Amino acid sequence: MTQPPHDEPTAAGPEELREQVERTRTELGETVEALAAKTDVKARAQEKAAEVKEQATAKAGELKEQAALKAGELKGKAADLAHQAQDRLPDPVKDKAVQAAGHARAKAAQAGQLWEEKAPEPVREKTAHGARLARDNRKALLAAAGAAVVVWLACRRRKG
């Protein structure tokens, strides 16, 4: 007869022996399942792919958030610089800008009337939508125009 392993005591009776056999079968089944899972390359690759995808999605969300914050900061800085540039403009330049803006508005109104008379309906609708957007963002447009005037004047002085 063979001797039982040293780590397991011998069974006292047939019932205890059956329990030991059942326990050993369960452990062996679990071991076989674990080994099968380790050898299932396709399933492991899919798990790894899902994990990498989840990490990439999380990283993309973080980067999107950071980009939005940076864009907000840059927008604020641009507005500050535009205001500083407007404040530094001499009064005659500001007056000329106001006059030019008035003249441009008058010409734009004339062109708008002509456009409404001759343009097809779908084109007019899209143009009206663009005009609404411009009106809604008037401050930003004026700040950009002021900055453009400052740049233009600086370039003009360097040449002259």
Features:
160 residues; elongated; 5 helices; mainly alpha
Description:
With 160 residues, the protein is mostly helical. Helix content is 88%, strand content 0%. It has helices spanning 14-39, 41-88, 91-118, 121-136, 138-159. α2 (41-88) crosses α5.
Q: What's the total number of strands? A: 0
Largest sheet, in brief, is:
none
Averaging pLDDT over every residue, what do you get?
A: 81
Radius of gyration (Å) = 39 Å
Judged by helices, strands and strand pairing, the structural class is: mainly alpha
The topology string of helices and strands comes to HHHHH
Distance between the termini: 113 Å
Proportion of residues in β-strands: under 5%
Number of helices: 5
Low-confidence region ranges = none
| Envelope shape | elongated
Helix content: over 70%
Question: Any chance you could write out the topology, listing elements then pairs?
Answer:
Elements: H1 14-39, H2 41-88, H3 91-118, H4 121-136, H5 138-159
In short:
This protein has 160 residues and is mainly alpha-helical.
